[in-house]
Amino acid sequence: MAVFLYQAGEKMQLIKVEDLYYRYNNSNDWVLNGVDLEVKEGEFLVIVGHNGSGKSTLAKMLNGLLVPDKGIVKVMDNQTSNHDEIWDIRQQVGMVFQNPDNQLVANIVEEDVAFGPENLGLESQKIRERVAEALKAVGMEEFRRYAPHNLSGGQKQRVAIAGILAMHPKCLVLDEPTAMLDPVGRDSVMSAVQRLNKELGMTVIHITHFMTEAIKADRIIVMDQGKIALEGTPEELFSQVDRIKRYHLDVPQVTELAFQLQKEGLDIPSDIFNVDRLVEELCCFK
Ligand SMILES: Nc1ncnc2c1ncn2[C@@H]1O[C@H](COP(=O)(O)OP(=O)(O)O)[C@@H](O)[C@H]1O
Ligand SMILES: [Mg+2]
């Protein structure tokens, strides 16, 4: 699995978005309205924001499925507006979407995962290696001979992720990959994604409306009306419950509880987002 590993030390910039504007079909409304963003190699970035704030449009910009009306999107040294560079960019930035059923095309899991490397023109031994490695990375190796329709939603999403991994991208962009899953499926996908990031150093950009997923990030950005409205670590963002709510977002339940207790005059910190931490703080009052 060493192929996914990145060297420790200074993190390189992988994606740079500069002053990005976009509107669909020349409508009057800018869906992306001046976005600036840098993503570093190995980072786990979460994007949140209410419906229609431009998250999916931004995601599609990152691998050149859409190209800017104004501004630039760069992936390493390539720009999405340069037609010749799109192929390289698509290989470096893989996308996973919400609906697992729309993403699996073959009748057998391993054939599905092989689809990407086959398109890259790799020889069959290499393809087999990549398929095995990618399925292992998402914990789906024992399902390699299964038909996708016999898998659960979470398993299908992990196969979809494996299909992207088999192309050896530098970055995974996941657009609400857990939105259609039950809690068990959601956990299995999140665990796989976190493992890819933490153990294999994969850069992850994860769009979600589940705040319990957002707290796993190195950095969160909040989109609002086509702009980045807030940005920070989970601790920085969730210590501003009132501000988060202004953008019609939830905060984790435990954070809300800590916030309300603080409002009632209890002397506890404002950046609590897991139960253990709240219990620890409350135990101080024993
Ligand atoms: N294909 C499309 N054609 C026209 N308008 C679109 C299209 N896709 C999205 N939009 C509009 O762009 C805005 C942002 O959408 P989107 O990027 O999907 O936001 P989000 O993912 O945050 O919900 C919305 O107002 C949406 O209606
Ligand atoms: Mg969306």
UniProtKB/TrEMBL annotation:
Any one annotated GO CC term: ATP-binding cassette (ABC) transporter complex
Name of this chain's protein: Energy-coupling factor transport system ATP-binding protein
Any one GO molecular-function label of the UniProt entry: ATP binding
Alphabetical list of Pfam families matching this protein: ABC_tran (PF00005)
InterPro entries: AAA+_ATPase (IPR003593), ABC_transporter-like_ATP-bd (IPR003439), ABC_transporter-like_CS (IPR017871), ABC_transpr_CbiO/EcfA_su (IPR015856), ECF_ABC_transporter_ATP-bd (IPR050095), EcfA_1 (IPR030947), P-loop_NTPase (IPR027417)
Family label: Belongs to the ABC transporter superfamily.
Membrane topology summary: Peripheral membrane protein
Organism: Orenia marismortui
Gene3D superfamilies registered for this protein in UniProt: P-loop containing nucleotide triphosphate hydrolases
ABC transporter domain location: 15-250
Keywords: ATP-binding, Cell membrane, Membrane, Nucleotide-binding, Translocase, Transport
Keyword Iron: no
Places the protein is found: Cell membrane
Domain of life of the native organism: Bacteria
Nucleotide-binding keyword on record: yes
